[in-house]
Design a protein that fits this description.
By secondary structure, the chain is mostly helical. The protein is 66% helix and 0% strand.
Length: 185
């Protein structure tokens, strides 16, 4: 089977960013299976409209399609009254897909502390409003530039910076020790 130039270019410019697309979809949808569906639909859309893509960096373009696909999916599922649970174990995996419990070189106490820290961060990130969570994931986890995020989300760079600042502040407040307010008798 011979690949067309469109297929070859799509494989070169878009497919290397599937992991980033899945990461964004997973944090937006908060469910592994839904994220897989969202990325699959986004890839189909991306390929369908690939003739209209004229850049050399498919990552921001794909991330924008994933984001838009998520919002379409979300509206449909919200109308159905579907509410998904956040999978803490899913987000507790490292870049290789290994959970803390699977790494033999850590002692049990270190594993437990690491898992607790990840779970706290995951819960704090999950608690953010989606407009804050999406820019934080794109910036901090996917290392996209402010300009790329602005293009993906369709907002000015200043708004990206404002949302990031608010997201970071909310995240820090959520993760701050809760016993600070209980200093008195």
């Amino acid at each position: 089977m011979t690949l067309t130039s469109k297929e070859r270019r799509f494989r070169e410019l878009v497919l290397p960013h599937i992991d980033s697309a899945f990461n964004l979809a997973r944090w937006l949808a908060r469910d592994d299976h839904d994220a897989q569906d969202i990325v699959q639909e986004a890839c189909l859309r991306a390929f369908r409209f690939f003739d209209g893509f004229h850049g050399n960096d498919g990552r921001p373009w794909l991330m924008g399609i994933v984001r838009n696909t998520f919002y379409t999916w979300h509206r449909q599922h919200q109308a159905q009254g579907r509410n998904t649970e956040f999978d803490e174990d899913l987000h507790g995996r490292d870049a290789t897909g290994t959970t803390g419990a699977q790494r033999a070189d850590d002692n049990p106490e270190a594993i437990l502390m690491q898992k607790d820290g990840r779970r706290a961060i995951d819960r704090a990130l999950e608690s953010l409003a989606v407009e804050f969570r999406e820019v934080l994931v794109m910036r901090e986890l996917e290392d996209l530039s402010y300009k790329e995020i602005a293009l993906i989300v369709g907002i000015p760079i200043g708004t990206v910076m404002s949302r990031l600042a608010r997201a970071r502040k909310q995240l820090a407040a959520t993760l701050a020790p809760r016993d600070r307010n209980h200093d008195g008798p």
